[in-house]
Structure formats: structure tokens, C-alpha cells
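dumping this here so i dont lose it
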């Protein structure tokens, strides 16, 4: 650290040069994040110093968090759902697993997820000493229900299904998983980190949420398709009391017990997340999601016209292709199976898609 502080202008010119090194989202087709909505930025700035880790000091912020959970519970067909704002999908998945593990009290607990599950489950199982059993996917990149029986046993404490998979944008057979979970009384978590802010705004509606009776908890991230500032995810539980098994004593805080994983938490990002939902309403969200889906279909049609077939028909705005080359200047990602993967976030406007298709065409020529 410097002995004498740096003059502000010099400091900000240094920061600005570093900011210029960031790609921003220009020609970035690989990200599940995007420019935050201007109202999210404004709300975040307003609550910049707010710490939800000590909610009694920030009672207004804490009520915004409750409102956010209430709005999402209602959107997910269960207005009475409990929950809280996490730092993102990873924390939500860890916390869902903690609840399941504590509720079941098996000596050698295992969990069942599809092989397509996000890598956060691997981290979570390592931390929580859970045996992770991954069920292979079928040709549609969804959990293969023909095989699931071989993986479940009396020590299975958690079933996980994905609503909008990270790599292929698919949805696991959640209705069947819900039935299995109910029949065997297993905790069933839906990872809708991405799909949670897409699926409710699509027509016809897909059942992925608390409308399925076996669903115990849902993860949905405002900092992905909720266009909020980073970091904010949401964990929703069917019954508020489920969170209580995570309580630890916090004697010197304004609350005497806490169930969150993180201590200090950003009230700003939570205010931002709520602000976007309030400002856009369902109509505004539907319009943005519709645009993202239309761009996804245009991209798929364009790529197929160039001879690069889509790996699968996605349920959300993620398109994957058998296409080995990438035109210069573009950021796409690759799935574990080697497909080109493009997330049609709002910053991937129609003219960006057309420019990409043009450059793919040049490669092709
Ligand atoms: N569950 C699902 C289905 C996800 O897709 C992700 C993240 C998570 C959980 C974990 O969420 P957090 O990253 O909020 O903890 N999916 C993206 C991914 O890993 C995250 C991402 C976003 C990666 C932007 C890159 C990027 O530029 O691909």
C-alpha cells in the first residue's frame, strides 16, 4: 500500500484505463449477465451503503428484500413462499443442499442431479460432504428419467432439476421429478438461476415452479435475466420454516439468529432487483424476454442456413451449435461436449446477431 495517498484524478485515470480493458458486453455472446437496467443502477446507488446482514439497522432495505421474495413467490405460484436474497445461484444451491441435508439426517447422504447441472453443485457437495450422483442426460440434454431409479436410494436426500440449463437452455422433466420427490418424500430443488426470469414470461407457460407440488425450493437470479446489478440471487422455499434449520445465533446483531450463508449482504443489489420488477412489470419483462427469444430463433435459423445445426431446440434464450470455428472479435463459449454456445441476452441485439451471422458467413465462404 502507498504511504501517501494517490491524487483522485490520477487514481481515476488509472481506474478508467483498467475499465477500458474490460470487454463490457461488446460482442460478448457467452455471458448470462448483461448491462444492468438503468433503474437497477439508480436504486443500487440509492442503497449503496445498506447491509442486509444487520437488517435492524436497515429496516427499509430489509422490507424491500421481503417484497422481492413476495413478488417472486407470487410469480412462482406460491405467494406464501419464504426465502431471501443470496449472492447468486451458487449460494442458493449451497443453501438448498444444506436444508435438505439437515432435514434428512442420513449418515451417508447422496444427492441426485443431472449431468448438465451447474458446477456450483460440485463445490457445494465438496463443502457439505455430500455424495454427488449425476444422472446422464438423454438426447435432448435433459435428465434421463429411464435411468434415475438406478441412482436413487434410501440415502438420497436431495433431487435437483434444472429449469434453463447453463449449457443448452433445456428444462429437466420437472413434473416427473416432482412426483418422485413427493412419493419418496425427498427434498426437490429447481435450479432456475437463469430460467426463473424467463419462463414466467413465455407463452405457453411451462410448469417449473411451486405449481408442481413436489417442489421444495427454487433458485432464481436477478443478476442474470432479472437485469439487476451484481450480486443478487434469490432462494425461495415452499415453507418459510425450512430456513430455520439453518439458524445460527448472532447475539450482537440486530437479529438474534440468521440463516443466510453470507453475513454482510448488499442491500443495493436487492433494491436494484426489486426496482426492475416494479418498473417493468410483467408486460415489460414479457416484451424483453420475447425479444431475446426472437433473436434466439433468428440466430438458429441463420446458423442453420449456413449449415451449422442447432444442438437442441432450447426452452430459453441459449442457442448451441455444431460449429467448430469462431469469427474473430467475438466471444462465444463452448459446452463440455464442444458445441458453440450463445446466450442471447438483451445486449445481444438483433443487429449484433446479424453482424455475427455475417461474420460466420465470411468464415464459411
Ligand atoms: N445455476 C445455473 C443454472 C447457472 O447457469 C449458474 C451460473 C449458477 C447456478 C451459478 O450462479 P452464480 O454464478 O450466480 O453463482 N451460470 C453462468 C455460468 O457459469 C454464470 C456466468 C455468468 C458465467 C456470466 C459467465 C458469465 O460471463 O455460465
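and the seq i came up w/
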Amino acid at each position: 500500500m502507498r504511504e501517501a495517498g494517490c491524487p483522485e484524478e490520477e487514481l481515476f485515470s488509472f481506474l478508467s484505463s483498467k475499465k477500458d480493458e474490460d470487454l463490457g458486453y461488446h460482442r460478448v455472446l457467452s455471458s448470462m449477465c448483461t448491462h444492468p437496467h438503468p433503474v437497477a443502477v439508480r436504486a443500487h446507488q440509492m442503497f449503496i451503503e445498506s447491509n442486509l446482514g444487520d437488517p435492524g439497522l436497515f429496516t427499509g432495505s430489509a422490507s424491500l428484500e421481503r417484497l422481492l421474495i413476495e413478488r417472486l413467490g407470487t410469480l412462482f405460484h406460491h405467494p406464501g413462499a419464504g426465502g431471501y436474497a443470496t449472492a447468486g445461484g451458487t449460494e442458493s444451491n449451497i443453501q438448498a443442499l444444506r436444508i435438505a441435508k439437515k432435514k434428512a439426517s442420513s449418515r451417508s447422504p447422496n444427492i441426485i442431479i443431472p449431468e448438465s447441472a451447474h458446477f456450483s453443485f460440485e463445490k457445494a457437495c465438496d463443502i457439505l460432504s455430500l455424495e454427488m450422483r449425476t444422472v446422464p442426460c438423454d438426447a435432448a440434454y435433459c435428465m434421463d428419467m429411464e435411468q434415475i431409479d438406478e441412482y436413487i436410494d434410501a440415502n438420497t436426500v436431495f433431487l435437483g432439476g434444472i429449469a434453463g440449463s447453463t449449457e443448452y437452455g433445456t428444462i429437466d422433466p420437472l413434473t416427473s421429478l416432482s412426483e418422485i420427490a413427493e412419493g419418496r418424500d425427498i427434498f426437490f430443488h429447481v435450479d432456475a438461476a437463469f430460467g426463473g426470469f424467463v419462463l414466467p414470461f413465455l407463452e405457453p407457460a411451462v410448469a417449473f415452479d411451486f405449481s408442481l407440488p413436489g417442489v421444495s425450493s427454487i433458485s432464481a437470479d436477478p443478476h442474470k435475466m432479472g437485469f439487476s446489478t451484481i450480486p443478487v440471487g434469490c432462494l425461495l422455499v415452499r415453507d418459510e420454516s425450512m430456513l430455520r434449520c439453518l439458524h445460527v445465533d448472532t447475539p450482537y446483531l440486530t437479529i438474534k439468529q440468521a440463516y443466510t450463508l453470507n453475513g454482510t449482504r448488499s442491500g443495493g443489489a436487492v433494491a436494484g432487483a426489486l426496482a426492475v420488477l416494479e418498473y417493468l412489470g410483467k408486460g415489460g419483462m414479457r416484451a424483453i424476454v420475447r425479444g431475446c427469444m426472437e433473436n434466439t430463433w433468428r440466430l438458429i435459423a441463420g446458423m442453420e442456413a449456413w449449415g451449422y445445426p442447432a444442438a437442441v431446440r432450447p426452452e430459453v434464450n441459449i442457442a448451441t451449435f455444431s460449429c467448430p470455428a469462431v469469427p474473430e472479435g467475438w466471444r462465444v463459449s463452448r459446452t463440455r461436449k464442444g458445441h458453440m454456445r450463445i446466450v442471447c441476452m438483451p445486449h445481444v441485439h438483433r443487429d449484433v446477431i446479424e453482424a455475427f451471422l455475417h461474420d460466420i458467413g465470411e468464415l464459411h465462404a
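The radius of gyration is 21 Å.
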